[in-house]
Amino acid sequence: MQTKIIKAFTLIELLVVILILGIFAVIAYPNVIKWINDREVKAEAIKTAGYLNEMQSTVKSGKYGMVQVTLQTDVYVYTMSNENFRNTYKNLSTNNTYKRNNSCAYRQSGTSRKTNMETIKFPTSGSDYVVHISPSRTVLCMTSDGLLNYGGNQTERDPETRLIVNVFTICSKGNTTQSSCSYRARQDNMYKVTVDKNINTKVYKLKNKSTWIKID
Predict the structure, then answer these.
(1) Which residue of 73, 105, 167, 169 has the lowest C-beta tally within 10 Å?
(2) Domain residues of the chain, as ranges?
(3) Which of 166, 171, 161, 152 is nearest to 197 (CA)?
């Protein structure tokens, strides 16, 4: 009777395989984390642009005279009825800065604003959130005729239309701090959202830390 000899891996061979797998894991891990962070930031950027479009539709439909969206650590939405919006600008003096510049009366008293929503959140701290937003506050006042002016926003020229647009940047907390989250900082996993006078939104991704590429 012949005895069958069963060949198996030696301990050294197993250790070599484990070592090789470990090397691959070490090499792949940073790229996997970077990919996960990028997906999270992209999702927030697209969600924010979609939310702004949703708010725009409430004004275009005539439901409100003005909707003010304030993006900061949280997103706050203030609504103003058509009547209150007309009366606010009608009652302001001709020389009033808000009326003269057709601007957002962000601090104007007596505008009958009412907070009625608090949805998307961009906190600067807390383990439950994965993004920073820059600048720390962006104010978008939407009317049926488009955006009102607000001097405190960050702006740039749209590369296609060359018109001035409002812009804010969304960064991953995995590789940035609140202070380093700026569209001029050139970090990995960065997206920006632009909003023009007619409340058209665009989303861009920073590619290779050098070029902003528009995404659909």
Answers:
(1) 73
(2) 12-215
(3) 166
